What does this fold into?
Amino acid sequence: MKKTKIEWCDSTWNPVTGCLHGCEYCYARAMTKRFPAIYLNGFEPTFYDDRLDQFDNCKGRNIFVCSMGDLFGNFIPDVWIKKVLDKCKQNQQHNYLFLTKNPERYWDILMGFKLPENIWLGTTVTGKTGRFKDLPRAEAVNTFISIEPLLNDIPDSEFERMPKWVIIGAETGRRKNKVIPKKEWIDKIVKHCRENNVPVFMKGSLIPIVGEENMLREFPESLKK
It folds into this structure.
């Protein structure tokens, strides 16, 4: 788990796995079925205390936290979240990136925990679900949006509240009703990001749509270190 094929981070860290959102395009649920010896409880939310120290005393890197679940889902106990955040605070050499479909819970955590600068709070937006404005304001904390999978055109009104970073990707896999995003949907996102000086990272799944020569692989300055 110290290396990953996810293009926008260096490593993944899964002290908590599992999710109850039920997204039909979820790759993580499929992974738990493929590797039942690793995910003993399947996709049920599970805490692994023995994984908390995994990145202690390691060289600094950008770490995607809980890629196999949603740490801020309403089904996750507060005590699990606190243990993970405490460990992030102890290891300032790393940047920790969180991604949730329930960004409203970030506000609950922010009320009782002073976030260090190495923590990035993200949410998923698809054009059908998720909203930019549900994130805390980017002036206060590091925020990012993962527009993956892009399932529909995103209204211009969403871009009135911009994060510090935007990731874009198409749905992968062989789902029967898989959506192929239109190039104009992607162009609109990039246009708004350019107007607001927000870096854009395009995942490889967009190459067939925008072309290799138009791929953007940008990071915020603090994630380049």
